[in-house]
Amino acid sequence: MNIVQHIRRHIYKRHFNVHTNSNSTLKNKRHINRYVNHYFQLFVFVGYTLIPFATKADAPIKPKPHWFESFKQQASNTALYNFLYALPKGGDLHHHLGGSGFSHWWYTLATDEKTNGGYRYYTKVFIKQCHGYGNNEFGRNPQLLLFKTIQHSHYAALNDCEKSEYRDLVTLSDEQKSAWMNSIRLDKPFEGRAEFFEKHWSRLGDLNRNPIIMAELLVKNMQAFAKEGLRYIEAQTNAKGVVKSDGSQYSPDEVVDIFRQRLAQEDAIATGVTARLQYALLRFLPNAEQELEWIYRFVDKHRDIYVGINMVGREDNDKGYPLRFLSTLRKLRQRIPNIPLAIHAGEVDEPNFHVRDTLLLGANRIGHGVNLIDDPATMLLMRNERYLVEINLVSNLLLEYVDEYHQHPFPEYLRTGIPVALSTDDRGMWDSNMTDEYFVAVKEFNLSWQELTGLAENSLKHGFVDEQTKRALLANYHSRIKVFEQTFLDQGAKSFPQTPSRYGKFICRQYALCQPPKN
């Protein structure tokens, strides 16, 4: 019996019984059928008109978009940037301390002898061919390089011709000062990888060999990062070859003590930022294996402040290929407890297996990893949450490892389960900050709120700091992000405790954010 027959039968019985009980007499079956058909038609009408409304009401309701999606769609670039500046963040895991200084920081520290330990600095503003022609322009002392900066003890050792090429930083004209500041950042469209690797570091010269300046630079980064909502930094800086103002050398242990003492001062503690150091090995040096052995033992001795080792230098110099160090590391691990490794790999144009080989060395984190996208087997391996890729979006564009952001593999890693975190690399030389990295990520790759906050969480989960401190940092982050979200939902942009005091040159050139926002 089908559904229609059931309905008819039910109506027939009910109608017949009702009229029988009321002593109504039905003359014949045709009358009954007439009433049955009448009610059946009414039932069909009700079914077609009312039941669909009930069905729609019972159907799953499409959820409203997350508030962050609505905000992204409506926000101007300025509003989005201010939001991301105020956003609580985690840490900066890929941070070259020598490349992190903004030009105006360098100038202030270099010219303030009370702060920099009594050093006086000179920079080369003229070229007078004091060594004639045919000088080695690829060595440590290129004759034709302007704005190379040296300290007084090295200036005093120059001959009269060489001295006439230099001027005290304090006495530079406005034009010379501006040119000096631009010489240590990528400020022109035609500057890129060659300028950065071959010129910037040579120009900084002796400034990078003053541990007092380097410690001050670390604190300046901590103060600036605190305003951006960061709470952790792992800075790459070394302790050998460091020179006193009289030209003699500090011992490596003396250098570490300078950092310890500076980080213990009140203004550093007040930032709320936890700072640790990595020791960097320039991997294509002829004696790199011997240097690695010394570094490993030195870091083991100073684990309270040095939490890991990095390997740096251009990957297109094949003398620094990863497997060169496999036997050395295996020998060191025979006798010394594990030291975490965060190694540059995949920062190169051509496909290769450097990331895979770097993992074989024992690396916990990969710096850049741009060409990991060409190694599917290693991508699968890295989806197991054990390894993290340190993503440097600004650096990879400016150094021409990608021409446009749509070529960058970051979203593929992020959305296929490879742990990633944003970092700033040599931010002073880009004139950028961590908010710039977040802005690029949101603007170019449409990050969700979960993806955005996951980046910050990863930067803490994969830090090399001790587990107790790591747990505290993560708990602090979870608390801050919860408060931030609720406060923003309640008050909107008025809730921002901090807005940027200036935009850097990168964000101005790339996204036309050039004027300080009005508070």
| CATH architectural name of the largest domain | Alpha-Beta Barrel
Low-confidence stretches: 14-32, 42-57
End-to-end separation in angstroms reads 77 Å
Q: Determine the strand fraction and express it as a percent band.
A: 5-15%
- Quaternary organisation: single chain
Q: Roughly how much helix do the residues carry, as a percent range? A: 40-55%
Q: What is the spatial order of strands in the main beta sheet?
A: 1-5-6-7-8-9-10-11
Please tell me what the overall shape is: globular
CA gyration radius, whole angstroms: 33 Å
Could you report the average pLDDT, rounded to the nearest whole number? 90
* E-strand count: 11
Class by SSE composition? alpha/beta
- CATH superfamily placement of the largest domain: Metal-dependent hydrolases
Count structural domains. Answer: 3
The CATH topology of the largest domain comes to TIM Barrel
Helix tally equals: 24
Largest sheet: 8 strands, parallel
The first-level CATH class name of the largest domain = Alpha Beta
Describe the structure.
With 519 residues, this protein is α/β, with parallel strands linked by helices. The protein has three domains: 3-51; 77-102 and 230-239 and 268-511, TIM Barrel, CATH 3.20.20; 114-182, no CATH class. Helix content is 49%, strand content 10%. It contains 24 helices and eleven strands. The strands form two sheets. It has an eight-stranded parallel beta sheet. Strands 3-2-4 form a three-stranded antiparallel beta sheet. Mean pLDDT is 90; it is low at 14-32 and 42-57.
